[in-house]
Amino acid sequence: MKAYVDSTKCSGYGTCADACPSVFELDEWGYAATRDDGLVPAGEEERARTAASGCPENAIRIED
Ligand code: F3S
């Protein structure tokens, strides 16, 4: 599973990094980026999906 952040949509809400810190981190301006090329570690799939569905800007895409 991989996660992608559309940086043109991200407004820096930051909830993704709270919901799934193993996949998402925030840069110094508070915008999201993925760790490890967006690769979702085993066992973190549900958190990654929660992060995606919780993004107010719908900026996160998850691919199985
Ligand atoms: Fe950006 Fe959405 Fe995360 S707006 S900081 S990708 S919750």
From TrEMBL:
Keyword Transferase assigned: no
Domain 4Fe-4S ferredoxin-type residue range list: 1-29
SUPFAM superfamilies: 4Fe-4S ferredoxins
Any Pfam family hit: Fer4_15
Cofactor entry: [3Fe-4S] cluster
Keyword field: 3Fe-4S, Electron transport, Iron, Iron-sulfur, Metal-binding, Transport
InterPro entries: 3Fe4S_ferredoxin (IPR001080), 4Fe4S_Fe-S-bd (IPR017896), Fe-S_cluster_ET (IPR051269)
MF annotations from Gene Ontology: 3 iron, 4 sulfur cluster binding; electron transfer activity; iron ion binding
Function: Ferredoxins are iron-sulfur proteins that transfer electrons in a wide variety of metabolic reactions.
Protein name: Ferredoxin
